[in-house]
DNA sequence: CTGTTAGCGCTTTCAC
DNA sequence: GTGAAAGCGCTAACAG
């Protein structure tokens, strides 16, 4: 039935004995085509299995009903978000296009701007930027940022309560009797990382514990960048009895590094993460962490973006979702 | 620095006082541009923050260095695959474009063909089809299927050993003393679903247990379609003591349904899944399941596709990866 | 070395 | 009701 390959609008036109303009009209249900012609053309379209090229179409008409999700990389956080986005898009009539550069796109600051330039104005009607490094400037299409660089700015933003979450994590460790608590920070350019560190410091001070700079390292949220700082903390002469890692990936790496060093978790060192990505339950022991409602964040971001695209009145341009402690097995009292 | 919005090649040309052709040449590092002109144009490009439109570019030159991943939906399996794909793409110079229709795209058989028509010939150099419903016919660009409709066909394919995995799962249940073992089947159009059921039947027969059709239901691999059949199995007068669900999503739903029915897992009913998506560790009790190396499958698919695109000699067009039992807490002996 | 010209597949006036 | 023609942003001959 369906033919092997790329059939264009001209093929359909020729086959149907009409002009491409006419085919285009029936394609887009425009007025000005007789019922019989329309039916005939439709038949040819079906027979040929024709589907209009998103690219060519978008170049001309700037409405594609496609929403772009721009991510540096497909890792646990962004894919979890994708699941929420996918749910939110339900019957909205939009389709999703998730775009990611090669692995280390995260390396080049401003990747989101480049991706956006490449796709916007044409391919997508709106975009969701996942942990973008830069959020200043204006955009030609509606854009929503998730967990961005700076805190809530002009750009519509969805994030979670990073500060409260970090305070909760640290207080939890303190309540377990820990005093020497290490901190493995996130991507320095991200507001979430700043707030998580701030929460750590604040909770420590509130408990009358001095913040020791030696116990603070940058782990960059990624596997490759987390091992070294985790090792440093774990091999200190007077190593911390607990480590708060700014995201689950770092925490998971910390558990692995600890094991490789012959240290038991939580017996020799307690570890708490942040995010509650599904992977956090896969470690042994399963990771105690602070949950962000990531899928929910995706859901909210999508709703917000669709409202923006439709120019619906938007209630709040910044949505902040709550975090919560998830106790599993990687922390214990001392 | 970077200006707010869509600047086109003509803007650059005008600003630099050259023709668009010249700009295009420096953009694509073509010969035929003096060093000084090139430098000047490059400066303007940088100043304007110009980035060429993927759409316009791809319409003309049919090489984009973008690989399409076509999925019906972003759910645990496809996103897990995405992680593997993302890793495989590393320094290859390709970028990833994951495309998904609205939620129930899975409903329309042949979605992958439609998506492909919309994107191919233009936007993407090659595609990975995730659980496509149809794999016949030819394609204009290199295509690799992951876990497709029919088993290994003409189309290059990556899958896992579904038959062996299903046999393992069923034998495991039998070894635990279960005899009345229910089966929650997958998407009927998928070869993986067929093989998993086949494995179930084969293991049963090998153990001298009659296959009871009443104990077999179709759960469709999705949350929405799994609840009802799970409930049916669980509320039978003589309900099974164990259920083998053809994927983790169905298994997780089964655990939930069991709980809502006041049945304990694994005390009243044992449940085993298939896939080992991260979510399977999040249930309580954590799910015993058959693991597929999903990320690895993504990795292999990407390698295969890149070889195909580069016309590198491809060793094997069908790659089948091993499955394994992952014992967690949702099964017990009777 | 540089610019002019012709499209890629499609939508959209605007004549007929 | 229908088609010719222009043009979206870009690349690729081909002239100059």
Structure in words:
The structure is a homodimer of 334-residue chains. Chain A has three domains: 44 residues, Orthogonal Bundle (434 Repressor (Amino-terminal Domain)), CATH 1.10.260; 121 residues, 3-Layer(aba) Sandwich (Rossmann fold), CATH 3.40.50.2300; 130 residues, Rossmann fold. The first copy, chain A, is 39% helix and 16% strand. Chain A has eleven helices and twelve strands. The first copy, chain A, has a six-stranded parallel sheet with strand order 2-1-3-4-5-11, with helices on both faces. The mean pLDDT of chain A is 91. The interface between A and B is large, with 62 and 62 residues. The structure holds a DNA duplex (16 and 16 nucleotides).
The number of domains of chain A is 3
What is the CATH topology descriptor of the largest domain in chain A?
Rossmann fold
Query: Largest interface, and how many residues on either side?
Result: A-B, 62 and 62 residues
Q: Tally the beta strands of chain A.
A: 12
Oligomer: homodimer
Q: What is the residue-mean pLDDT of chain A, rounded to a whole number?
A: 91
Low-confidence blocks of residues of chain A: none
User: Shape of chain A from CA axes?
Assistant: elongated
* Main beta-sheet strand count, sense and barrel state of chain A: 6 strands, parallel
**How do the SSEs of chain A run, as a string of H and E?**
HHHHEHEHEEEHEHEHEHEEHEE
Work out the helicity level of chain A: 25-40%
CATH architecture assignment name of the largest domain in chain A: 3-Layer(aba) Sandwich
Question: Which value, in Å, is the CA radius of gyration of chain A?
Answer: 25 Å
Task: Please name the fourth-level CATH homologous superfamily of the largest domain in chain A.
Answer: Response regulator
How many helical elements of chain A? 11
């Amino acid at each position: 039935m369906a033919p092997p390959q790329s059939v264009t609008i001209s093929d359909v036109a020729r086959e149907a004995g009409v002009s491409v303009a006419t085919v285009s009209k029936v394609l887009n249900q425009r007025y000005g085509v007789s019922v019989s012609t329309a039916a005939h053309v439709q038949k040819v379209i079906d027979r040929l299995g024709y589907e209009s090229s998103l690219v060519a179409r978008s170049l001309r008409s700037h409405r594609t009903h496609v929403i772009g999700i721009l991510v540096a990389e497909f890792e646990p956080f962004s894919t979890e978000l994708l699941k929420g986005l996918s749910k939110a898009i339900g019957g909205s009539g939009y389709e999703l296009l998730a775009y990611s550069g090669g692995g280390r796109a995260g390396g080049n600051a401003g990747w989101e701007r480049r991706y956006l330039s490449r796709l916007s104005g044409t391919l997508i009607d709106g975009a969701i930027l996942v942990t973008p490094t830069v959020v200043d400037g204006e955009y030609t299409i509606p854009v929503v940022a998730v967990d961005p660089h700076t805190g809530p700015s002009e750009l519509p933003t969805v994030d979670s309560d990073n500060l409260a979450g970090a305070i909760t994590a640290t207080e939890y460790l303190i309540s377990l009797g820990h005093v020497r608590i290490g901190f493995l920070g996130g991507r320095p350019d991200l507001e979430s990382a700043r707030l998580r560190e701030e929460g750590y410091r604040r909770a420590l001070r509130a408990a009358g514990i001095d913040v020791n700079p030696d116990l603070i390292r940058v782990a960059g949220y990624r596997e490759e960048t987390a091992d070294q700082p985790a090792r440093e903390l774990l091999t200190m002469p007077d190593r911390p009895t607990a480590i708060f890692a700014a995201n689950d990936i770092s925490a998971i790496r910390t558990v692995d590094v600890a094991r490789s060093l012959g240290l038991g978790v939580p017996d020799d060192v307690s570890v708490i993460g942040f995010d509650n990505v599904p992977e956090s339950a896969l470690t042994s022991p399963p990771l105690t962490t602070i949950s962000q409602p990531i899928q929910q964040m995706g859901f909210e971001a999508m709703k917000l973006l669709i409202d923006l695209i439709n120019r619906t009145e938007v209630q709040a341009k910044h949505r902040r979702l709550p975090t919560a402690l998830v106790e599993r097995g990687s922390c214990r009292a001392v």
